[in-house]
Amino acid sequence: MRQGEISLAxxxxxxxxxxxxxxxxxxxxxxxxxxxxxxxWPFWLSLAMLLSCVAIxxxxxxxxxxxxxxxxxxxxxxxxxxxxxxxxxxxxxxxxISVVSMYGAIALFLLYYLRFLGRHSWPLTLAxxxxxxxxxxxxxxxxxxxxxxxxxxxxxxxFDVMYDIIY
Length: 167
Known about the structure:
- The chain is mainly alpha-helical.
- Helix content is 71%, strand content 2%.
- The model has no long low-confidence stretch (mean pLDDT 92).
């Protein structure tokens, strides 16, 4: 556990630094009359993540957390199985985006995660798996004016109905 905590903090710190560096390719400050620059949120959120990693490393060095004092293995067999189940679901989610659209992939991931991993009831699972992607569609497409990937042609009838509601 001790080694896992500091290793993960170090890995996330490096990732934060990389994201901060990439964010500076766009303006990271506030642009008068226009709002925050394109790199504003990525830069400042990455800085917050980096500072969190520094705090984790400091507490690890001082031995303040239970994990920093533990000699137990980082993950047991249940932890590895959970990682494979969730990680496999995320990989499938990403792979499905180009097939069934971002919103379809979100719906399928929620269905898998809530029903099969979380063992929630079918009514709750179906309600969340259907309503959340629809809500996200309206938020991104109508409010934010950001189009998400729409998958293959067979998903177009769904989007036509949704766009008729917006416009």
